Amino acid sequence: MAILGAINPMLTVGLDGDNAWRLADYVKRDGYSALRRILESGIGQGDVINEVKKSVLRGRGGAGFPTGLKWSFMPRAFPGDKYVVCNSDEGEPGTFKDRDILRYNPHAVIEGMAIAGFAMGAARGYNYIHGEIWEIYERFEEALEEARAAGFLGRNILGSGFDFDLFAHHGYGAYICGEETALLESIEGKKGQPRFKPPFPASFGLYGKPTTINNTETFASVPYIINMGGDQYLEAGKPNNGGTKLFSVSGHVNRPGNYEVPLGTPFAKLLEMAGGMRGGRRLKGCIPGGSSAPVVPGPTMMDCTMDYDSISKAGSMLGSGAVIVMDETTCMVKALERLSYFYYEESCGQCTPCREGTSWLYKVVHRIEHGKGRADDLDLLASVTTNIMGRTICALGDAASMPVQSFIKHFRDEFAYHIENRKCLVPVDVQRAGSGFFTATA
Amino acid sequence: MLTPESLKRIDREIAKYPADQKQSAVMAALAIAQEEQGWLSSEAIECVAGYLGMAPIAAYEVATFYNMYDLKPVGKYKLSVCTNLPCMLTGGVDAGEYLKRKLGIGFNETTPDGLITLKESECMGACGDAPVMIVNNRRMCSWMNPEQIDKLLAELK
């Protein structure tokens, strides 16, 4: 099934058939009508950008930056090559929505990118797809072939004189390529190491040309915005948080999966849609926006609504909409240890504070988890994070630090217990039962 | 040293990029070379670099930066198991332990018959399907409980 649950969905409507991803089915769902209307009715580039601005569509990849504003930064009258790039390098732990958008509705992404290309005067685009989802990459290539054959991509689209071609580029296992300038380096055939900013991609992007990078879900939302109008899209969410959003719910819930709901939907409702807590256990903590977002204690989370502003007030970030649910069987030290290992493993090594700092973070959390913690380790961790944050080229260093700070802030007693008693507060067999792995076949 | 079929596939990748940006195809070309040869030897990397007109060191940088390239020979099947937090909460670490016990090897080791290499992997972007694992960088396997793992192992011969 394409989607496990939805409230007033747009992106995931009518996707249950086996061929829902194909061009013919997409066209039946009104697909490519937005592009057609723009090209045939002489709607201007500025009009398209204004419509996207009105919708208050905010970047779905994690930063939540207003998409229309980003598009307006492109020097669209600049002669010469310009690019639109889609970031489908979905590797933020907890996030798996773009995979399903590409799997079930790839033409929405293609149409959104073509509209973006028109609005920003770009004739070429790339979709950078996470290497681990190879079957999805191959499907996207097939969808591109369909779109080219039908004249929705290529030269002189629908006889309008507008040229736009789009290609798929795959990653091959590097989290950092989700950072937009690392992603550009990667398309250029280099190590994925982030660039200094400024200059920003809108002036110096792919191959040094003006480039706009948006997330898969962001592009996929564009045809719906054009079709329903920016105002109506905004109303589908809540003020300053336009539209619906896909939330990837993982961890200790009965029905992990993707759910499309209007921004502003209560977290409690989303949790209920995901089948509630596994085994009826208590919600201990939740990471509401992917592993880089600070953890939120269970009771606080239950009072949140799922939108950029509410989650920000709770001290975290809506990020990519990856909701990692942890129940009372979770050892928070072990959870943090695994996340810290991830950032240590994925630091690109370019900036010293991140390269060395992520290694320190992992080693110290690791020794606490393994009964070798020292009395001043929590202070040491705090000091390492403050020495990383704000001192690196990209946000990976901050992303590695925020989980450490927030886990210790909210679950300090558990860390202190580990250090004093050299063991977990949560018994190991309870943790093991929590994963449900060995009971699955029982 | 690459077959004409592989070179043809690489040509198709090169065509995706502007004529003066052949290097952009290096990631795909290395993946194709690895698919053909099972792993990336220095010779294979140099061959790709030569074909794309880039310095061998530049291709080597790419091959060593991205995790899915294998710079040493691996078993006939490479099994990459995600143990990152969302998977861990739903049995990813247990799945790794289960595989280690069943195969009698640890992560980054190969069974003595050369059939299976086990790898620990970072987030594959499929956390709703946890535990997840990938066979030979291509086939994602979802909801891998002990029963499903047994089935997969029986199939990999």
How is this structure best described in words?
The complex is a heterodimer of chains A (442) and B (157). Chain A is of the alpha/beta class and 442 residues long. Chain A is built from 19 helices and twelve strands. In chain A, strand 9 (283-287) and strand 10 form a beta hairpin. The model of chain A has no long low-confidence stretch (mean pLDDT 95). A five-stranded mixed beta sheet of chain B has the order 2-3-1-4-5, covered by helices on one side. The chains are: A alpha/beta (442), B alpha+beta (157). The interface between A and B is large, with 63 and 54 residues.
Topology:
The complex is a heterodimer of chains A (about 450) and B (about 160).
Chain A: E1 5-6, H1 23-28, H2 33-40, H3 45-55, H4 67-72, E2 83-88, H5 97-104, H6 106-120, E3 124-129, H7 134-149, E4 165-170, H8 180-187, E5 211-215, H9 216-228, H10 230-235, E6 244-251, E7 257-262, E8 265-266, H11 267-273, E9 283-287, E10 296-297, H12 298-302, E11 305-306, H13 308-313, E12 322-327, H14 332-346, H15 352-369, H16 377-388, H17 396-410, H18 412-421, H19 428-435
Parallel strand pairs in A: 1-7, 2-3, 2-5, 3-4, 6-12
Antiparallel strand pairs in A: 6-7, 8-11, 9-10, 9-12
Chain B: H1 4-14, H2 26-37, H3 42-52, H4 56-65, E1 77-82, H5 85-89, H6 92-103, E2 109-110, E3 116-121, E4 133-135, E5 139-141, H7 146-155
Parallel strand pairs in B: 1-3
Antiparallel strand pairs in B: 1-4, 2-3, 4-5
Helix pairs in contact in B: 1-2, 2-3, 3-4
